[in-house]
C-alpha cells in the first residue's frame, strides 16, 4: 500500500506551488472545505486523513508507531516523498501543527513555510509555561475519554469549538469525532495531550504564521505568544475569531490571514 492510499490523499487545484493541509484531532480532510477553494487557483492542494480518521486505512494503524507524534510526521514525509514535494506550504490545525513541525525539522527542504492554526507545543502547565491545563486536568480528561468516548465527545466538542451561539458548529465537530475509530481516537488523544515539543521549536527554520484565536480553551493566547517568542522566523496573528477552529467558524478571516502571510 502506498502512503497516498493509506492516508486517502486527494489533490485539487492547478497552481505551481503545493499547499499540504493537515487536519486536527477528531477530524478529517473535510474540515478544509471552506478554506481550500480560495487557494485552488494559485496552489496544488494536497489533502489527507491521518490514519484512523476519515477514509484512511485503519488496518495500517500500528499502536507502537503512533505512540508519539513522530509516527504521524513520518506519514507526512512519506506523502511528500511519493509526490516529490519540495518547498511546500504546510497548513496544520491543532496537533497537526506539531506533526508538521517534526516533519519540517526532519526534512526541511520539503517545506518553505508553515501555517499553524491553533498550535500548542505542550498542553500542560510547567513552571512559568502556561499550557492551559494542569496535569490533573489532562489525566481526568483522558480518564473520561477512556470510560465513555461518545459521552466525552459530546461534552468536549462545544468547549473546543467555542461559539456557543452557533451550536451547529459543535454538532459538526461532534459528528466528526463520532466517525473516528474510537480505539485509535483514545490513543491519539493520549499521545496528543501528553506530548511536549517545546524543545523542538528552535530547530524549525521555515517561516511560520501562528494563527491565534481569542477565547481558545485548548491553545490559549499565552501559548501563541510563547511560540512566537521561541520560533525564530514566526509571525503571530491575533484573530477576532473565537474558539479553536477558525477554519470552520471564521473561514474568511482565516483565508485573509493566510493570504497576507503568503504574499509577504
Automatic annotation (TrEMBL):
Family to which this protein belongs: Belongs to the AB hydrolase superfamily.
Location of the AB hydrolase-1 domain: 20-257
Lineage: Bacteria, Pseudomonadati, Myxococcota, Myxococcia, Myxococcales
Lineage top rank: taxon: Bacteria
Species, as recorded: Stigmatella erecta
UniProt name for this protein: Sigma-B regulation protein RsbQ
Pfam family, one: Abhydrolase_6
